[in-house]
Specification:
single chain; 414 residues; two-stranded parallel sheet; 47% helix
Length: 414
């Protein structure tokens, strides 16, 4: 007899024995009562991803502060995903989990992976409803969420405006004109960059004004900043940096802080080496309650110091959390052995880093070639000639990449 099964929410599947007993019970009820049987059983054809020992250790370290130092191509997103699955399997509601990363693309990828794993994990009650899902977003999206729920505390409407970079640059240009300065003489983009960096560090206008006294250009920036804030207030808007700065400010409020600490009991921060002062404060305040914070990063990939990233945030994690567990993800799944050998040798020259040596089970790969040219013309000729040879040998043009540090370097190559 074939018993029709209907997908439902309360899955009683814990192990093979209970599954057999449940099917037997369903079959008995079906034969006694007749009709269509609703049987709460979930079958998943998706196997959980295989983890290496270090990844498994990180995934199972679900309580207390954890620092995961993950080299490039070491499977950090997979590890974070499995860690969240393990937390849910331990009995924690998915809605009590927060996962933050830096770009919308990365957040979308992580969100998709997490939701897919939770939906297809046979030991969990499925499906996970939208209300029960982990909160996965960027820092800025998190800021919008918290500010909207507490806008009245900042004197803002719930649906406030958000200035993008173009809006902000235009407002700075207007501010320069209002204080009698020529935007052609004083670059609005440069002034906006200074204001942005100061806000990212968590500094307020009043603090900057005090330090600017006696310095012509800093005093000029302070005047522009003051006018700029007036424009934002008039428009009932915030800029991107305010989304972080005001979120940190709101979390200074004990009631607000405790409210979100109760919601998000398990916190994950990706690319922790790229956090600035405001982002660091947000993460620290949210984690103050249960101290269940897991940060993932790679000191060797710190590339946003020009944008206000503070590498000491990851270097000092063990000072902030003396009980922290540190786990290294060193096995690379992306590159060849020769690439990793060169990368390890070069990065070992850095002083401010934690020791980490990437390795791989991949093939040895081609040797790295170095060509020293006399000028940009001979350099471009070499790139073009090598590309021509590769294409003639059957390599598809779209498989060839040319990287350069600044846009002007592309002229000779093109």
């Amino acid at each position: 007899m074939v018993v029709p099964l209907k997908y439902s929410k309360n899955t009683p599947v814990v192990n093979h024995q209970k599954l057999v007993l449940w099917i037997s019970k369903c079959a008995k009820n079906y034969t006694n009562g007749g009709g269509f049987l609703s049987c709460d059983i979930v079958f998943s054809m998706n196997k959980p991803p295989q983890l290496n020992p270090a990844q498994r250790e990180a995934a199972l370290a679900i309580n207390g502060p954890v620092l995961i130092l993950a080299g490039a191509g070491a499977g950090k997103t997979k590890t974070l995903t499995e860690r969240i699955v393990e937390i849910v399997k331990s009995g924690v509601s998915p809605s009590n989990i927060l996962a933050i990363t830096f770009t919308n693309k990365a957040a979308n990828e992580m969100r998709g992976r997490i939701f897919d794993r939770l939906s297809n994990e046979p030991t969990l009650n499925n499906p996970i409803s939208s209300e029960e899902r982990p909160f996965v977003s960027t820092f800025h999206s998190l800021g919008v969420h918290i500010i909207k729920e507490n806008a009245h505390l900042l004197g803002l409407p719930r649906f406030f405006g958000i200035f993008d970079k173009g809006d902000s640059k235009q407002a700075v240009k207007k501010a320069l004109q209002e204080i009698g300065l020529d935007p052609k003489q004083y670059d609005p983009g440069k002034i906006l960059g200074i204001i942005s960096k100061e806000k990212g560090a968590g500094r307020k206008l009043e603090e900057f004004e005090i330090e600017a006294e006696g310095n012509f250009f800093s005093s000029l920036v302070a005047k522009v900043w003051h006018k700029y804030e007036g424009t934002l207030k008039q428009e009932k808007a915030l800029d991107f940096d305010d989304l972080l700065l005001h979120t940190a400010k709101l979390l200074d409020n004990e009631k607000v802080r405790e409210y979100y600490q109760q919601i998000w009991r398990y916190i994950h921060i990706d690319e922790y080496q790229d956090t600035n002062g405001a982002q660091y404060q947000i993460a620290k305040r949210l984690a103050e309650g249960g101290r269940n914070i897991c940060v993932v990063g790679d000191i060797d990939q710190n590339i946003y110091s020009w944008r206000g990233a503070q590498i000491q945030n990851i270097l000092h994690f063990e000072k902030d959390y003396p009980e922290a567990k540190v786990i290294l993800l060193e096995e690379n799944y992306r590159s060849t052995q020769n690439i990793l050998l060169a990368a390890n040798k070069i990065i070992s020259k850095n002083v401010f880093r934690k020791e980490k040596n990437l390795f791989t089970k991949n093939e040895e790969g081609d040797l790295i070639s170095i060509f020293e040219s006399f000028d940009e013309v001979s350099e471009a000729e070499f790139v073009a000639t090598q590309s021509e040879k590769l294409i003639a040998g059957g390599v598809a043009p779209e498989e060839i990449a040319v990287l350069y540090r600044a846009n002007f370097q592309s002229r000779a190559i093109e």
